[in-house]
Write a structure and sequence with these properties.
The complex is a heterodimer. By secondary structure, chain A is mostly helical. Chain A has two domains: 105 residues, no CATH class; 243 residues, MetI-like fold. Chain A is 79% helix and 1% strand. In chain A, a hairpin with a 4-residue loop joins strand 1 and strand 2. The longest helix of chain A is centred in the first third of the chain and has 38 residues. By secondary structure, chain B is mainly α. Chain B has 24 helices and 13 strands. In chain B, helix 11 runs parallel beside helix 14. The chains are: A mainly alpha, B mainly alpha. The interface between A and B is large, with 108 and 111 residues.
Chain lengths: 371, 725
C-alpha cells in the first residue's frame, strides 16, 4: 500500500521536476527563439490537422512550416534541431495510433450493421455470403488458426533447434556462415514462396493425397512455417546469446558438459526470450499474406467434413483482405467487413509483437541486474 | 627393452565399438537423405530396382539399422565395450519413447489389425510399459532397446509388405488419402533419426558425454537439413529462371572485359585474397575471394581472347560479339569505381621545372577534352577533328608510352629522372580520368569515340531484353522493365520519406529525451509497427493515404505506405547504432566546449553511420519484396507496356490559390507495377500466362532483394574490419 503510494509519489515528483525544468527552459529562452519555436510547432500541428481533415490548406501550412524552419535553422540551429527531431519522433509515435484509428473507423459500419456477435461468435450461422449480406469472420478465423497451428509446429521446434545450433553448438566458422544465411533466408519475398507453392507444391500435394487441387490448409501451414522459421531462429538466438558467459562458464567449471549447461543454464535463463521468439513467429504466421493468398482456394466456409480437416481449404483473415479488396465496392458493408478483419489482425499480431518485445526487454533487464 | 613407447596415452584411432557406432550414425544419415529423396522423386520407392520393390530396400535398411542399434546396446551391457552408461536414460527419453510407442501401437492396432477403440487402451498400456522400461533399465539398454525394437518393427512392416507403396490410409474426418509412398519415407526418416541419435550417444559411451553427442548430432542434423531445404528452394528458382532471364542477351566482349577487370581490381583492392595470413572466418572469406578473383581473371582473359581471335560466342541464346566496343554507361560505372578506389593514391609533386610543365600539360589536355565535350553538348554537333576522342586517344597513347618508359628504365637511375617522368599510379589516374571524360561525353552527346572495332559508343553493347523490354507489346519478348522502374521509384520514395524521419527520431530519443513515459511509448509503438502485418499497412494506405492523394492507388501512395513500413526498422537499427557510440566521444566533444547539437552532428551521427546504413539497406531489402500493400495501394495493370515516366513529368505551376506554388507529378499519381506485383499478376492471370515469365520475374526479384541483403552483410563486415584496424 505504502509502496504504491511511494512509487506514485516518486513518479509525481519526477513529472513535477520535468515540468519545472521545461518551464525553466522556456523562461530562459530569449524572445525570438520562443517565437520561432511556438510558430514552428503551431504550423506543423496545423499542417498535420488540416491534412487529417483533408483541407486544401495543408500544403500552404507545410510550406510556411518549411520556411520558418529554414529561417530557424539559419538563426537558431541548436533549438531548431531539437524541435525538428522532437516533431519527427512525435510523428513516428502517432503512426501506430493513426493506423489503429483509421482501420477502426472504416470497420465501424460493418460492426454497427452486423453486430460484433455475428461477426465473431462461432455459435451463429458462421456464414460469409455477400449476396445475403452475411459477413461472419468465423471461417476465416478458423482458417488462420489451422494454418498458424501447422506453421508453428514447423517453426517452433526447428527454429529453437536452429537457435541452439547457432549460439551453442556450431563452431565459430560455421556460425559466421549460418547466421547471415538465416538473415538472408528471412529476406526471401513471400510472393516467391507463393509462386513456388502455386506452381509446384499445390499440385504435388493434391496428387499425393488425392484431394481436390487448391491449397490444402496443411500445405499452406507448412510453407508459412518455413517462412516464419528464420524470424524465430534469429530472435531466439539473440535471447540465447544474451545469457551471460559467466553463468555458462560457472556451469562448465563445475564439470558439466556443454549439453548439460545448455539444458540447465542457457535454456532456462533464456526461456522467456525463446518463448518471445515463438510468439513473434506466431505473429508472423498469422500476418503472412501473399504466399497463402496465391495458394488458397478462397472458398470462405468452414472446413469440411470436420473443422480440423487440414486437407480442406478455406480462407484466412489476411487472404480475405487480399482477395476481397478488388471485388468489394467502396463504402459497402463488404469493404467494411474487410477492415474488421484488418482490425483483428492489427490487435492480435501487433499485440503479440509488443508482448514479445516486452518479454525480451524484461529478460534482458533481469540478466543485466543479475550480473 | 620396454615396449611402452608403443602405447599411446590417448587412443585416437577409436575402438571397434566406436567405429561400429559411427558407422550406424553415418548409415542413418544416408538413409535419411535417401528417404527425403523419395519425396522429391529422386529415389524410387514405388518402382522396382533389379526386380525387388524399392520399399523392400528401405525395409531391409531400416531393419538392419534397428538390429545394429540393439547390438550397440547389448555390446555395451554384456560385451567388451568400455562404456560409461548412467543408471537411467532420463525422464525425457522415457517420455519420448512412451509417446512414440503409444501412437505407433495405437495406429497399428486400430487401422492395420482393425480392433475397435480398445486398441487405444492397449496402446497406452504398451506405451507406459515401454516408458517404464526405458527409465528403469541402465542407460545403454534404456536408450537403445526401445529404439531398436521400434525401428526393426518398422523395417519388418516394410519388408513383409504390411505397409507397401500401394497401401493407403484415410484418416477419419478428412477427405485425404495418405499413401504408402509417403508413409514409408516419413516413417523411415523418423526411425533413422532415432537410430542416429542412439548410435551417436553410444559412440561416446553413453553417460553425460554420450547424451551430449546424441543431442548435438540430432540438432545439427535437423538444422542442416532444414537449411538445405531453404537453400534448395533458392537453387530451384535459379535453375528455373536463369535461362528465361538471359534469353537473347547480347554483349560486346569489350564491355564485359572492362566490367570484369574492374570487378577484379575492386576485389584485389578491398578484400584479402591470401588465406595464409587470415584466420577464422576471414580465412574462409579469403579462400572465397581468391577463388572469385581467379575466376574473374580467367574470364577476363577469355574475353580478351575472344576479341583477339574475332570469333563470336553464342551459347543457349546468349551471344558475345567479339568487338572491343565499350558502352558509355558500363564505362562510366567501371571508371567511377576505379576512380573511387584509387582516391588515396596517385599524387605527384615534381620539383623540377620540366616535371611541373609535364604535369601542367596533362592537366591542360584533360581540361581541353572536358571543355570540348561541354561545347559539343551545348552546340549539339560533333567536333570530329578536334573532338574529345582524338584528345583521349592522344592522352591514352602518351600514358602508355610513359608507362613503357617507366617500365624499361633501370631502377637505380630512377631517383634523378623521377622529377621528369611521372609515377605509374599518377599516370593511371590520369588515364582513368580521361576514360571517364570520354565516357561522359559519349553518354551526354551520343557521339561515339574511337573506331568501329574499338572505342566507346553510347548504347548497344549490352542488349538484355528481359530487363529492358516492357512486359507487353507487339512481337517483343516480354521483360520486366516497367516493374523494375516501379520498384526503383517506390524504394526511392520510401527511403526519402522514412530515413530522415527515422534518423531524426533516433537522434531525439538517444540524445535529447530522458527515459520517460514518452520514450517508452515510442518504444512500444515502433515495436508494434515492426510486427504489424503488411496487409494491415495496405488497408491503412487504402483508408488514410489514398483518399488524401487523388483518391486512386498510385506510386506515391505505395511510396508512403512502404515508407511507413521502413520507418520502424530504420529507427530501431539507428537507435541501436547511436546507443553504441561510446559516451567518451560525447564527453570529449563537450570538454572541448562544443555545443550539444554540434556534437551530435559531427560526432554521434558520423560514428553511428555504419549501423544506420546497414539498417537502411536491410530495410530496403525487406520492402522491395513486399507485395501485400501494393495490391491495395499500387494496383496497376497486370502487364504494363511502358514504365512510369516520373523524372520527365514534374510540373511546377504558380497560381493565385494557396499554396501559390504547385508542384505536381502526374506520373507519381498513376497506378503502376512493381517486381513483386508483377509476379502476383503472373499468378492471377491464370492458365494463359506464361509460367516461364513468372520464374524469370521471381529470379530478378530474388536477385534484387538478396542483393540488398548481401550488400548489408558486406557493409557490416567492411565497417567492422575498419573499426578493428
Amino acid at each position: 500500500m505504502s509502496k504504491t503510494q511511494n512509487s506514485v509519489g516518486r513518479a509525481g515528483s519526477a513529472l513535477q521536476q520535468r515540468v519545472d525544468s521545461f518551464g525553466r527552459t522556456v523562461v530562459e529562452m530569449d524572445r525570438t527563439s520562443l517565437l520561432f519555436a511556438v510558430v514552428q510547432l503551431l504550423l506543423i500541428l496545423g499542417a498535420f490537422a488540416s491534412f487529417l481533415i483533408q483541407s486544401p490548406w495543408a500544403m500552404t501550412l507545410l510550406y510556411a512550416f518549411l520556411l520558418v524552419t529554414g529561417i530557424g535553422w539559419a538563426r537558431r540551429q541548436e533549438l531548431t534541431a531539437k524541435l525538428l527531431t522532437f516533431e519527427m519522433t512525435a510523428l513516428t509515435l502517432s503512426t501506430l495510433g493513426l493506423i489503429a484509428f483509421f482501420l477502426f473507423l472504416e470497420a465501424l459500419p460493418a460492426l454497427r450493421e452486423m453486430g460484433l456477435g455475428h461477426v465473431l461468435s462461432p455459435f451463429g450461422s458462421n456464414q460469409w455470403s455477400v449476396s445475403q449480406g452475411q459477413f461472419s469472420l468465423v471461417p476465416m478465423i478458423l482458417g488462420t488458426l489451422v494454418t498458424t497451428a501447422v506453421a508453428i509446429l514447423i517453426a517452433a521446434p526447428f527454429g529453437v533447434a536452429g537457435a541452439l545450433f547457432i549460439s551453442e553448438i556450431a563452431p565459430d566458422w560455421l556460425r559466421e556462415i549460418t547466421k547471415p544465411a538465416v538473415e538472408l533466408l528471412a529476406g526471401i519475398p513471400s510472393i516467391v514462396y507463393g509462386f513456388i507453392g502455386f506452381t509446384i507444391i499445390n499440385k504435388y500435394v493434391s496428387n499425393l493425397f488425392s484431394i481436390t487441387p487448391g491449397g490444402a490448409m496443411f500445405t499452406i501451414g507448412i510453407v508459412i512455417g518455413f517462412m516464419a522459421l528464420p524470424t524465430v531462429v534469429s530472435v531466439a538466438e539473440d535471447a540465447l546469446s544474451a545469457v551471460p558467459d559467466a553463468m555458462k562458464d560457472g556451469s562448465v567449471a563445475m564439470g558439466a558438459t556443454d549439453w548439460q549447461t545448455m539444458k540447465s543454464v542457457s535454456i532456462p535463463t533464456a526461456f522467456s526470450g525463446v518463448s518471445a521468439a515463438v510468439l513473434l513467429g506466431v505473429g508472423r504466421a498469422i500476418g503472412e499474406t501473399m504466399a497463402a493468398t496465391v495458394m488458397i482456394s478462397h472458398s470462405r466456409r468452414m472446413l469440411e467434413p470436420t473443422v480440423y480437416n487440414v486437407f480442406d481449404s478455406t480462407e484466412t483473415l489476411t487472404t480475405l483482405i487480399a482477395s476481397g479488396y478488388g471485388t468489394a465496392p467502396p463504402e459497402s458493408t463488404y469493404m467494411s467487413a474487410l477492415f474488421v478483419a484488418g482490425v483483428l489482425l492489427l490487435v492480435i499480431v501487433t499485440g503479440l509483437g509488443i508482448v514479445s518485445q516486452l518479454i525480451q526487454q524484461r529478460m534482458q533487464r533481469k540478466l543485466r541486474g543479475g550480473q | 627393452m620396454s615396449d611402452s613407447y608403443r602405447t599411446q596415452l590417448v587412443d585416437t584411432k577409436g575402438t571397434s565399438y566406436e567405429q561400429f557406432a559411427i558407422g550406424v550414425t553415418v548409415a542413418s544419415f544416408v538413409a535419411f537423405v535417401l528417404a527425403a529423396g523419395t519425396l522429391f522423386g529422386w529415389v524410387p520407392v514405388a518402382g522396382e530396382i533389379s526386380g525387388v520393390p524399392g520399399a523392400t530396400y528401405f525395409g531391409v535398411g531400416v531393419l538392419g539399422l534397428g538390429v545394429a542399434t540393439g547390438a550397440l546396446g547389448a555390446f555395451s551391457r554384456w560385451g567388451e565395450a568400455q562404456t560409461t552408461p548412467s543408471r537411467s536414460a532420463g525422464l525425457v527419453v522415457g517420455v519420448v519413447h512412451a509417446s512414440i510407442w503409444t501412437v505407433a501401437v495405437g495406429l497399428f492396432l486400430r487401422y492395420t489389425i482393425g480392433i475397435g477403440s480398445v486398441s487405444w487402451l492397449l496402446a497406452v498400456a504398451v506405451g507406459v510399459g515401454v516408458g517404464y522400461f526405458a527409465l528403469a533399465l541402465p542407460e545403454d539398454l534404456g536408450a537403445t532397446a526401445p529404439t531398436a525394437v521400434f525401428v526393426a518393427f518398422l523395417g519388418l512392416l516394410f519388408v513383409t509388405g504390411l505397409i507397401s507403396p500401394s497401401w493407403a490410409w484415410q484418416p477419419n474426418g478428412t477427405n485425404a488419402t495418405i499413401p504408402g509412398t509417403l508413409v514409408i519415407p516419413l516413417l523411415t526418416m523418423g526411425g533413422v533419426l532415432m537410430t542416429g541419435w542412439a548410435s551417436a550417444s553410444a559412440y561416446e559411451g553413453f553417460g553425460t558425454r554420450g547424451r551430449q553427442n546424441g543431442a548435438f548430432v540430432l540438432i545439427s542434423l535437423v538444422v542442416l537439413l532444414t537449411l538445405s531445404v531453404l537453400v534448395f528452394l533458392l537453387a530451384f528458382v535459379f535453375e528455373r529462371g536463369i535461362m528465361v532471364v538471359l534469353e537473347n542477351l547480347t554483349l560486346s566482349a569489350g564491355t564485359v572485359t572492362v566490367l570484369l577487370a574492374t570487378a577484379l581490381f575492386a576485389l584485389l583492392r578491398t578484400a584479402t585474397v591470401r588465406p595464409t595470413v587470415a584466420n577464422g572466418t576471414d580465412r574462409v572469406a579469403a579462400f572465397v575471394n581468391l577463388t572469385v578473383a581467379s575466376l574473374l581473371a580467367l574470364a577476363t582473359l577469355g574475353f580478351v581472347l575472344v576479341i583477339g581471335t574475332n570469333l563470336s560466342i553464342s551459347a543457349a541464346s546468349i551471344t558475345v560479339e567479339p568487338t572491343a566496343v565499350v558502352g558509355a554507361v558500363p564505362g562510366l560505372i567501371a571508371g567511377g569505381v576505379v576512380f573511387g578506389l584509387t582516391r588515396e593514391s596517385g599524387e605527384w609533386r615534381p620539383e623540377s621545372g620540366r616535371g611541373r610543365s609535364i604535369r601542367r600539360a596533362f592537366r591542360a589536355a584533360l581540361l581541353v577534352a572536358g571543355g570540348i565535350g561541354v561545347l559539343e553538348l551545348v552546340a549539339g554537333l560533333e567536333l570530329a577533328v578536334a573532338g574529345i576522342g582524338a584528345v583521349s586517344v592522344l592522352l591514352g597513347g602518351v600514358v602508355v608510352a610513359a608507362l613503357l618508359v617507366a617500365a624499361v628504365r633501370p631502377t637505380d637511375e630512377r631517383t634523378e629522372s623521377d622529377q621528369v617522368i611521372p609515377p605509374v599510379s599518377w599516370l593511371g589516374r590520369v588515364a582513368v580520368t580521361a576514360f571517364l571524360l570520354a565516357c561522359l561525353r559519349v553518354f551526354a552527346t551520343g557521339f561515339p569515340v574511337g573506331l568501329d572495332q574499338a572505342g566507346i559508343v553510347a548504347s548497344g553493347t549490352i542488349d538484355w531484353p528481359f530487363i529492358t523490354n516492357p512486359s507487353q507489346g507487339l512481337g517483343i519478348q516480354p521483360g520486366v522493365m516497367p516493374a523494375m522502374f516501379g520498384t526503383i521509384w517506390i524504394v526511392i520514395g520510401a527511403v526519402t520519406f522514412a530515413v530522415p524521419l527515422a534518423v531524426g527520431s533516433a537522434v531525439f530519443l538517444t540524445e535529447y529525451a530522458e527515459d520517460s513515459i514518452f520514450t517508452r511509448a515510442v518504444d512500444i509503438a515502433t515495436n508494434g509497427l515492426w510486427s504489424t502485418p503488411s496487409i494491415v499497412f495496405g488497408l491503412f494506405g487504402l483508408a488514410f493515404i489514398v483518399p488524401r492523394f487523388g483518391n486512386t492507388p498510385s506510386i506515391l501512395a505505395a511510396q508512403l505506405v512502404l515508407g511507413f513500413m521502413l520507418l520502424p526498422l530504420v529507427l530501431i537499427t539507428s537507435r541501436e547504432a547511436m546507443k553504441s557510440v561510446p559516451d567518451e566521444y560525447r564527453d570529449a566533444s563537450a570538454a572541448l566546449g562544443v555545443s550539444k547539437w554540434q556534437t551530435i552532428r559531427s560526432v554521434v551521427v558520423p560514428a553511428s553511420m555504419p549501423g544506420v546504413i546497414t539498417g537502411v539497406i536491410l530495410g530496403v531489402g525487406r520492402i522491395a519484396g513486399e507485395t501485400a500493400p501494393l495490391l491495395l495501394v499500387l494496383n496497376g495493370p497486370a502487364f504494363p507496356n511502358s514504365g512510369p515516366k516520373v523524372l520527365s513529368s514534374f510540373l511546377v505551376r504558380i497560381g493565385a490559390d494557396p499554396p501559390f506554388i504547385h508542384v505536381s507529378n502526374p506520373a507519381l499519381m498513376e497506378r503502376a507495377s512493381a517486381l513483386p506485383y508483377q509476379l502476383y499478376a503472373v499468378i492471377t492471370a491464370g492458365v494463359g500466362a506464361e509460367q516461364s515469365f513468372g520464374w524469370g520475374t521471381a529470379l530478378v526479384l530474388l536477385g534484387v532483394v538478396l542483393g540488398f541483403f548481401l550488400l548489408s552483410i558486406a557493409t557490416r563486415r567492411y565497417f567492422r574490419r575498419k573499426l578493428h584496424q
